[in-house]
Design goal:
Strands 3-8-9-4-7 form a five-stranded antiparallel sheet, with helices on one face. The protein has a four-stranded antiparallel sheet with strand order 2-1-10-11, with no helix packed on it. It has about 130 residues and is mostly beta strands. It has one helix and eleven strands, in the order βββαββββββββ.
Length: about 130
């Protein structure tokens, strides 16, 4: 089990997880986050997170809409100079999660001035920014 401590925009959060993935600005996922921020007409440096819900259709022609696409965000109190990377949480759909369908994808944006510390079960730091 890993302990993940994030200090971001004046808030400290501590969580536990079996895994940790950090996506830097060279990743495909980072580019997807930029596309979503653009759809929101927001600069990523002003955001803490972006929350994306994929559309879901009941037919192959994508005419029977079960769930609309939605994108929303949480704003920073103090914008950062640059987003250096991000973490992603995939929240499974209550009804269709066993089929690999996400209810929501949460992008946590990490900027200059933010800190991440990941420690293992022995308390040794295995990753930090």
């Amino acid at each position: 089990m890993l302990t993940i401590k994030i200090i971001q925009d004046g808030v400290t959060s501590i969580t536990e997880s079996n895994s940790f993935v950090f996506y830097d600005e060279t990743s495909r996922e980072y580019k997807e986050m930029l596309r979503l921020a653009d759809k929101l007409k927001e600069k990523p440096t002003t955001l803490n997170g972006i929350y994306y819900t994929q559309p879901m259709y009941g037919d192959q022609e994508c005419k029977e809409v079960i769930r609309e696409e939605s994108i929303y965000y949480s704003a920073r109190n103090n914008p950062t100079d640059k987003i250096i990377g991000m973490m992603i949480d995939f929240i499974p759909d209550d009804e269709h999660g066993d089929q690999g369908i996400e209810k929501e994808i949460a992008y946590s944006l990490i900027g200059t001035g933010d800190h991440i510390y990941v420690t293992n079960e022995q308390g040794k730091t295995v990753f930090n920014i």
